[in-house]
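COURSE: Structural Biology Practicum
ASSIGNMENT: Worksheet 4, Part C
STUDENT ID: 0417
INSTRUCTIONS: Below are two proteins. For each, the amino acid sequence is given first, followed by its structure token string. Answer the questions at the end about the second protein only.

PROTEIN I
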Amino acid sequence: MSTSLRQGRISGWLKMNQSSIKELADSCGKSIGAMSRYCNASGVPTKVRAAMQAFETSSGKHIPILYLPEGRDKKPGPKKGWIDRKLADLRLEMQSKSGV
């Protein structure tokens, strides 16, 4: 689904159910701008998607799953400073081989 269509569908659905992006943002603990970007994205963090899915309007309805972006988390990268530790290990190894 196109991202602009998704945001239009989510905001349209919210309006039809007497709600707004602001109320969705408040319930998710995000700013209106961040929530607008999340509604427009093709993938969001799984916690945000779960919060969007759990959002309930005053009439007790939830956002249809088809309208929600995919939930996915980024894989964690290497820990900070890993390259420095690797270089230090290589230097020690080179020194021990050369006998210095």
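PROTEIN II
(use this one for the questions)
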Amino acid sequence: MNNVSLLEKISNFLLQTELVSVCDDFHKCQANYKIQSTNMNDNGASLFQSITETCNNYNLNFDINFNFDGYDPILITNKTSLTTLHDNIYNIKNNFDFLDAEPNELDSTISIDITIYKDEAISRRNTTHIFDCESFFSNFNSGKELQFLFKLKDFNVNEKIQFILWNSETSFNTCSLFFISAYNHINYSTENIERQLLISKRNKSCHFTFDSELKFIPDDFKLLTNCPYESIKLLFDKLLITLSLIYLSDYSDLKIESNEVIFKLKGYRLINNTILINEITSESLHIIYDIYSWVYTDGNFIDKLGLARNIISLYTKENDITKLSDGVLKSIESGYDIYLKENVKQYIEIKNKISEFLISQSDKASDITKNMFSSLKSSFWSIITFFLSIFLIRILLSKSYSGAITLEVVVVTLFFVAFSFVYLYLSLKEVNEEKDRLLNRYDTIRDRYKDLLNEDDLKNIINTEELKSNDKDYIDGRKKTYTKTWITFNVLMIVIVLILFFYMNSNDILSDTVEKISKFYNVTLFYFE
């Protein structure tokens, strides 16, 4: 690599140095150098200003400690002013003159310690810097994999997390973690993943003890481009499997001290195990991740997860879920196909039941008005039968129309008509009550099936508002027609009886009738007084 890293620029801005050791992590990089010569760069001040500008652009801070045997160390930072810098350079030169060390004595008398601080870059840019990939990732291998996961808590996982690589020209990334070479800015392969939706789904059926702290998904560790570092690939593979297990298990917990994942998976049989993350192999990577991806992509998530747990429990060997055979996903998919076919059958049965219910409701709406019509006919024929029988009997007995309709006949007829109006009132009340019961059944059937069917689908099958409106209009229309007919008939009967009474009776009979009515009125009035 021909590009000079920022760390190397800092170490060599004044003197020619050689790296002795480096310790790089998320928050700072510490490096120790020995000097190869006491010859100082004439343009050291201008190089320092260029380095400081670069660090400020990346929100990085640094300290440089020049250590001399027998003398106080000289500290230079990115905050050091130009005047102070010149003074420090002068003091360093004087120390060299006083020490007057031979070239083979430089290692024991002079050293340089450099510390680069990354906290400001993390807080402001959601970015950290890697100056030595081997040192950086050695902190998270061989039993320390979970520490990488917990270190990521310092970042905003809802935004792109960047790692600027200062000793690599190769960039690589996952859906959220971007390892970007400081020297090659290229377009990255990305996937749009709804993080909060996946986490929300997981929380419905999985209990993860670190849910409030670790908002990661398995896809955060699925490399989308080629990574040249084997240690990073191994780390990400193990974290990918770990998170996939968390998203499939009923219960899961992480033990950072012992680097373990504890999980319980309830299928046809209970799988309860603790796995050392550093012992996870990449052999089962595609199997477990593919199952996770299938469960959380499309379809009914709850049903798919339950089915996956059942099949996984049957395929798990030695109670170790990481030792699944290749055929498990095919079995899960086949089981789901059968499940869907059964669901389609049940769906059709439910839809047929609802259709039968709607037909039954339509028949009941018709029956309600038919009952009222039957009552109307009964009332009609009762009055007509009474009237005709009295009328015909009197004509046959007297062989004359005169006097066929007496006051008594009029009174009884009026009584029947009054009873008919009472019957009308009761019939209307019954129709209204039955109508309310009928309309309420639509809400009852909707509530009964709303847990089984999608809300929109249920609305298409049984649009309660439209059905209730149609039945209400039908019943009210019939009720209005029958009521008008009923009232019209009763009024006509009263008019006909009165006309016949006055037409068929002589003046003497009418006078006698008036006298009877007057006496009845007076007696009634006297009684109430």
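ANSWER KEY EXCERPT:
Q1: Residues 328-398 form the longest helix (71 residues).
Q2: The first strand starts at residue 17 and ends at 24.
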